[in-house]
């Protein structure tokens, strides 16, 4: 059983809460052995669930809304190389493979042996109640590089996966619903003028 499946089973039949936390996140345990598990859920009003799934399934699209990704490239044999932003203007590379997939519903990926970070990710797509769109749930399990000190530094630098998951899902929602991601760049330019 993968870590994310374990997180789901311990979460029982919880539904996403008003805080936007995913079931894996609301489990009694945020750790499974040496892994931390974080998760968030967002409701996206459009486009259709199948279109959201297809956009996410093309991993080369992920850097469009995930701030911590420089690039995702095909690595052959069904694998993907993720170039992840790291503290100190550096980056790390993680090679992943699809562990499970159900068209229009679920994508599960995990890092392969020898990657810089031991991680698994899971994104689920399901119809939101009342025909309000699609609930998109992202859960990530990972072994923090440098242990607890690494988590503290990542939080300090706003690069901790829980913070990233929340921001990334908000950016995904904005991109899918409006075709763009709002930034404060124009405001800053206006203030300088």
Residue share in helices? Answer: 25-40%
Number of strands: 8
**What is the overall silhouette?**
globular
SSE order, one letter for each helix or strand: HHEEHEEEEEEHHH
Percentage of residues in strands: 25-35%
Structure summary:
The protein has 193 residues and is an alpha+beta fold. The chain has six helices and eight strands.
Characterization of the model:
The chain has 193 residues and is an alpha+beta fold. It is built from six helices and eight strands. It has helices spanning 3-11, 23-26, 49-57, 147-156, 161-178, 185-192; strands spanning 31-32, 35-44, 69-76, 79-86, 90-102, 106-111, 119-127, 134-142. Strands 1-2-8-7-6-5-4-3 form an eight-stranded antiparallel beta sheet. A hairpin with a 3-residue loop joins strand 5 (90-102) and strand 6. The chain is globular and about 45 Å long. 29% of the residues are buried.
Provide the fold topology:
Elements: H1 3-11, H2 23-26, E1 31-32, E2 35-44, H3 49-57, E3 69-76, E4 79-86, E5 90-102, E6 106-111, E7 119-127, E8 134-142, H4 147-156, H5 161-178, H6 185-192
Antiparallel strand pairs: 1-2, 2-8, 3-4, 4-5, 5-6, 6-7, 7-8
Task: From the structure above, extract its key features.
6 helices, eight-stranded antiparallel β-sheet, 8 strands, 30% helix, alpha+beta, 193 residues, globular
């Amino acid at each position: 059983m993968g870590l994310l499946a374990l997180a789901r089973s311990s979460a029982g039949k919880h539904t996403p809460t008003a805080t936007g936390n995913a079931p894996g996140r609301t489990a009694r345990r945020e750790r499974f052995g040496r892994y931390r598990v974080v998760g968030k859920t967002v409701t996206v009003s459009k486009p259709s669930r199948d279109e959201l799934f297809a956009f996410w399934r093309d991993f080369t699209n992920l850097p469009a809304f995930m701030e911590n990704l420089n690039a995702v490239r095909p690595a052959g044999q069904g694998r993907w190389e993720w170039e992840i932003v790291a503290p100190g203007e550096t980056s790390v590379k993680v090679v992943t493979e699809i562990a499970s997939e159900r068209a229009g519903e679920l994508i599960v990926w995990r890092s392969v042996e020898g990657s810089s970070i031991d991680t698994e990710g899971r994104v689920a797509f399901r119809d939101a109640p009342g025909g309000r769109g699609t609930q998109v749930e992202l859960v990530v399990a990972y072994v923090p590089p440098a242990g607890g000190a690494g988590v503290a530094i990542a939080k300090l630098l706003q690069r901790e996966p829980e913070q990233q998951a929340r921001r990334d899902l908000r950016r995904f929602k904005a991109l899918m619903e409006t075709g763009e991601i709002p930034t404060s760049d124009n405001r800053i330019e206006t203030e300088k003028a």
